[in-house]
Amino acid sequence: MSRDPKRIPSMVKNRRLVEKRRRQIIRGACDLFVRKGFHKTTTREIARECGLSIGTMYEYIQSKEDVLYLVCEYIHSELEKRLKKALAEAGTGREGLTRAIAQHFKVMEEMSDYVLLIYQETKSLPREAMSYVLRKEEEITSFFEEILKRGIADGTLILDPSTVKLMAHNIMVLGQMWTFRRWALNGDYSLEEYTRCQTALLLDRMQPSEHGREMT
Amino acid sequence: MSRDPKRIPSMVKNRRLVEKRRRQIIRGACDLFVRKGFHKTTTREIARECGLSIGTMYEYIQSKEDVLYLVCEYIHSELEKRLKKALAEAGTGREGLTRAIAQHFKVMEEMSDYVLLIYQETKSLPREAMSYVLRKEEEITSFFEEILKRGIADGTLILDPSTVKLMAHNIMVLGQMWTFRRWALNGDYSLEEYTRCQTALLLDRMQPSEHGREMT
Amino acid sequence: MSRDPKRIPSMVKNRRLVEKRRRQIIRGACDLFVRKGFHKTTTREIARECGLSIGTMYEYIQSKEDVLYLVCEYIHSELEKRLKKALAEAGTGREGLTRAIAQHFKVMEEMSDYVLLIYQETKSLPREAMSYVLRKEEEITSFFEEILKRGIADGTLILDPSTVKLMAHNIMVLGQMWTFRRWALNGDYSLEEYTRCQTALLLDRMQPSEHGREMT
Amino acid sequence: MSRDPKRIPSMVKNRRLVEKRRRQIIRGACDLFVRKGFHKTTTREIARECGLSIGTMYEYIQSKEDVLYLVCEYIHSELEKRLKKALAEAGTGREGLTRAIAQHFKVMEEMSDYVLLIYQETKSLPREAMSYVLRKEEEITSFFEEILKRGIADGTLILDPSTVKLMAHNIMVLGQMWTFRRWALNGDYSLEEYTRCQTALLLDRMQPSEHGREMT
DNA sequence: TATGAATGAGTTTTCATTCAT
DNA sequence: CATGAATGAAAACTCATTCAT
């Protein structure tokens, strides 16, 4: 779909090397950004952390913002990858959705810091890069739209078509909520409990049958 | 409850004046932070925006972070105030909850930029200030816990006590979602539609009755 | 005439102070630029030389190029001032021109380093500033056009009107030549000799002698 | 005469190759220096422009300043070559001088950008290289001294021997003036007009006319 | 109290040059 | 000989904070 990840120019020709060095940069920068935030991290720190001299680092990027973009892009593609894999295993319909949600939440747990990072620093990206990142977010969200639509099609989910998109976003947000409300939820709920409750909340409404459901 | 809004020292003794000047600072800084973010706003800009000289401004704060704290605190207390007022009018039980949610969402709409700001910049606060802000957030959340508990008590809401807290957070987050997913939702849903759908989602699960309802 | 010396903004309000500090900056920078050239002089050196901290210096300029502009403008206005004064005393007609040329050459001698500087660094100015400087140069040149015209009018100079401008430029350039060919001329000619010869060269052609010649 | 063009060492032994590569370097660098100036041109750009890798380029030079020297030397020898050729054709005496001046001015027109370049960047050369370049300039100037002397000898030019040198410099400078005052002269004079006027100015003084004048 | 000029540590970024392959 | 990735010193510029008036 959105096949245009803003290409960041590099002074270095060797493709392989560029890939490798950028992975280094991303790894180092991710940690630092998570720990200190984008603005409080200096380029020299990033260089040191990823084992390059600043000079060398700047052979692979054009500006500090490029590093942020690289990091955001990486996180999003990682999320996408993991989610895609999870969804592939999940199957379809109601059952599939249940598993998909659980997988999504699991991914959120694993990527907790990174998701938080994206939420807090996306705004620091330059316009163009930011809209790419948001498009990516929407793309990921649409995975859930697909599952919901298939569930509607096979009759295992009851849902007004106009609310499909909203529901997909709800699923995304309730997953992310596990990362950015950790400080409030962590003491009271385990990921399993959290998943069970939120799944019930989301799925009960889409129940095709007329009788009893339980929450816990 | 949380009666300890980190006291920010001022060089100026006159209480009245301090209050007045800080209101000026908050108003100016809010706009700037929303527009450009905390880090990209300079103290000079803040001073200019709020009609003080930098020297004067620094008579009322100790550091730039203090301004952020002041702003966050202001936004939270504004949110709290509005929500409290809304909840006071909302009444109790199921009916009350419906109205409370609608009010909450309306407040989110009104305070959209500010809510977003808090979400993105809270991390920039120094430890102590940050935990105060988070505590405040939890406090606001607990308003909904109260309503839910009262609903359970009067039998108009069915909900496992262990999920009360989670539900309260869900309500908060689904409200905030209207601000930080605006870019994705705005085209497809009006605030009214959004409110109706999310309310249905949230309340259906707590329905004490045994029979079918619709979403739209 | 060209009443628009590109106004360079300053962070500091106090006009007097701005004037004073900029004079400091110009003085320090002039020396350094003459000695090392614009590009090989660092902003820190300029600041040190003029007794300001870099921070302070940057309160009065926006960029290093501004310093160059300030310096060029200063030199030009100094040249203009001295030349104007000289020309005012010079009187009119053939006599006046002789004295004007001598004064001009004297000014070139005095301002030798600065004239050289302008010749070598004007190109480093940003477009807008450069064209202002060139306009100024043309303006100064036109002083000589005026004298020539007056000489033609009063009959003490014979010159085809179409060559007035060229002659004015010649006078300018033969003056500047004393600065940028110093390395070659200094050993062989004193300023007096130089002046006498060049004046003869320039004026003989314009002699209203009994057996009139024409130029074209 | 000045047979000591500062030898620039090269890592490469093959003479032929060194010559060839340096010609490449000069060609690329000339264009860039004219367009952007020496300091604003990077070594990478030079290498790219002349089709070498930086590594390779540095096999043939020792520093960026070497490139400037190479360029200046090239321009000067080109000027010398063309002027020599022109002067050879020009003949001697008054007639010859007239033609020589016209040829010189024509060369200035052709080499306009390069002459300008030399005037602005010579100062950026390291001491030794600079004095070589200046010596070269003097050498070229002395061509005109020769012509003048021959003119004096054959009686077609009247000129005090002590002013020969000055006149030669004047001829040089009035030619160069066509390049560095282009911005002011171009609109008003064609090269032909310019040449005619300046030649008249220069030669009239040296006229062996019937009622001899002297220069003092 | 109010002001705003002064400060300089700290930031991002560039680029001439080297050297292992 | 040719290559181009690596280097890091050095550059321009910023900005939170202070303090004399």
Automatic annotation (TrEMBL), chains A, B, C, D:
GO terms for molecular function: DNA binding. Residues 19-79 form the HTH tetR-type domain. Residues 42-61 bind DNA. Pfam families: TetR_C_24, TetR_N. This is TetR family transcriptional regulator. InterPro entries: Homeodomain-like_sf (IPR009057), HTH-type_Tx_Regulator (IPR050624), HTH_TetR (IPR001647), KstR2_TetR_C (IPR041490), Tet_transcr_reg_TetR-rel_C_sf (IPR036271). The keyword DNA-binding applies. Keywords: DNA-binding.
